[in-house]
Amino acid sequence: MARPRWLVATGLLAPTGLWLGLFLIAPLALVVQFSFATRDTGVARAVLPWTAQAYATALDPAFLPIFGRTLAYAGATTVLCLLLGFPLAWFTARHGGRYRTALLAAVLVPFWSSYLARIYAWKALLDGEGLVNTLLGYVGLDREGGFLLTHAAVVLGLTYGFLPFMVLPLYVACERFDHRLVEASHDLGHGRASTFLRVVLPGVAPGVLAGSLLVLVPSAGDFVTPRLLGGVEQSTFGSVIDDQFRGGNNWPLGSAMAVLLLVLVVVVLVLRGRRGEDVL
Amino acid sequence: MTRRPWVLGGVAGLVFLFLYAPIAWLALVSFNDSRSLSRITGLSTRWYARLFEDDRVLQALGLSLRLALTSALVSTAIGTLAAFGLRRAFPGRGPWTVLLSLPLVVPEVVLGVALLGFCVKLAGIPLGFGALLAAHVAFSLSFVVVVVRSRVAGMDARLEEAAADLGASPLVAFRTVTWPLVAPAVAAGAAFAFLLSFDDVVTSSYLTGVGSTTLPVFVYAQASKRGVSPEIVALSTLLVAVSALLLVAGVLAAAWRARRTGTASTFVEAGRDR
């Protein structure tokens, strides 16, 4: 008991710290080092001379559309997840009653089930002869060749994949939200829209922030969904990084892009500030 | 909003439909008689039968199971220790918290390529089980810590103090008071870690070696080469069914436990009154 508290805490944290230091921090540091390397350096120790060439290439206007597309996909996915996730979270938290846990578990089942399986399901559904196109055909809205390989297909797939990431923090925020505030707002003469914008939304803001972050980051980095539902034409940041490491064999360029993606994450984190933290 | 939940309930219902319709379709198509993924022509279980004849599938499944079990064990063990380490304030807790939440925000593709470079060019770790384990524990740790930590934070410290006052050694107090309280969270963390590892595609795809491919990476490679086949759909359906069963079992176990501990705590209340 005489041991100082920080020593005990550090001892308990040490194994995890060691693992993360070895298999997360060190590899990330190596990526930063790679990003300044000249092309085709073979081994890590032979990176000198240092050069910012990879960053110049990564920020070349040729890659600009890919940047833009990635951000557009991630942004659209986040907004859609918010629009779909909020009613679900609010309903479960406010009106779920004794079925709350069951409802939450029902949101989680798709989340914990094979990620690939879910993308394949959409692949089959969006195909030219798939169910979606067939059903739309009855009302004359079908599309030649189906909806695969479109921007809409990618955003749909990403939304489907990351929706639970939004619902969980939103649910926590909705549950904590004091519902009497809504009644008070109505009593004070505010309408529904005004109550929602000025009372409910600020109240659940931490959940909205946390959820948006949890959706934005992975959807910006994902390359499996864009590749399977969007095809080679709709390459995103993640798939360009993947190409540099797997196919193109330009590790410095891939590393520079990975670092840029990390910078984006850090910017989002800083913008979020500390508000969403307690819900995460 | 309170008085008329029907509209809201309807919208929530539609979102649930959106979540489940593709999975239902997947399950239906896996029993389809023809190779078509779009039109049901009849029922058959032949895709499942063919699946279990494929050695590569069984091999990948074996590796995935071993990997998920090992990674869940390691990350739960050290992650639980870490969660206890963060229990009380101490100098340096802030930076530790940042480090522990880092894996949540590092994009999977970045983690994958970073570990690939690390294993191949710096540490000389051969790709395969070891490299995969390093990665899977790294990204599961945060989830374990988040889950266990919330339980540890919500625990009444007076219970342990009472045990100490009554003469229990720290070890006995831990075994009889603390551990039963956190055990469900530790189990939940382990289940999370297992499923995260079992389902991972992106990070794993960089770290699998020759002859050591995980099931999701195998599925992804097959589908990228030849497109989605009914065998792959059958396999996916199985994966969905397994994780759904795990989750339902978890929820039921939690409910059962809550009822049991519910009676236990009334017991304590009764004792306190006396």
Automatic annotation (TrEMBL), chain A:
Protein name per Swiss-Prot or TrEMBL: ABC transporter permease
Database matches in InterPro entries: MetI-like (IPR000515), MetI-like_sf (IPR035906)
GO CC terms in record: plasma membrane
Pfam families, sorted: BPD_transp_1
Entry's transmembrane regions: 71-91, 103-121, 148-174, 195-217, 251-271
Lineage, highest ranks first: Bacteria, Bacillati, Actinomycetota, Actinomycetes, Pseudonocardiales
Membrane topology: Multi-pass membrane protein
Keywords noted in UniProt: Cell membrane, Membrane, Transmembrane, Transmembrane helix, Transport
TrEMBL record, chain B:
Membrane among keywords: yes
Residues passing through the membrane, by range: 7-28, 63-86, 98-118, 124-148, 177-198, 233-256
One GO CC annotation: plasma membrane
Compartments (UniProt record): Cell membrane
BP GO terms, sorted: transmembrane transport
Pfam families: BPD_transp_1
Key words, A-Z: Cell membrane, Membrane, Transmembrane, Transmembrane helix, Transport
Membrane topology: Multi-pass membrane protein
Span of domain ABC transmembrane type-1: 61-250
PANTHER family, per database record: PUTRESCINE TRANSPORT SYSTEM PERMEASE PROTEIN POTI (PTHR43848:SF2)
Sequence similarity: Belongs to the binding-protein-dependent transport system permease family. CysTW subfamily.
Name assigned to this protein: ABC transporter permease
Species of provenance: Saccharothrix syringae
